Amino acid sequence: MKKSLFVLFFVMTLFVYTQAKAVFVEGLEDMPLPDGVAQIENGSLSFGNEEIRLFETYFSSEKKSFKEIKKFYEDTLPQMGWVRKKRTEQTILFERDGETLEISEESKKPLILRLVVKSKAQ
User: Which residues pair with 118 in a beta bridge?
Assistant: First the structure.
């Protein structure tokens, strides 16, 4: 019993620690940012109503490659209900609940990424 409680305490502590460190995209509360990636200030556009949504933002990184960013999102987003639909050298595309999420490489040095979430009906 003590061992089970210790394991439970350890797992809960690890969960709280990782949640406290997680950084999310401003404007998308369930979209994490990988370590070493920053959202570009004043680089976001958001529009939505009951029928459609459009959200666009940009990120930059001096430390990460687009290959690393793709791996991060391919590992992370399915846990949030997103299904990968397409992958190319410069783009990954996911779908969830009538929306698409596209992450594309706009520039290599420095790495600039564009993230767009929009309703499929658009």
Answer: 54, 100
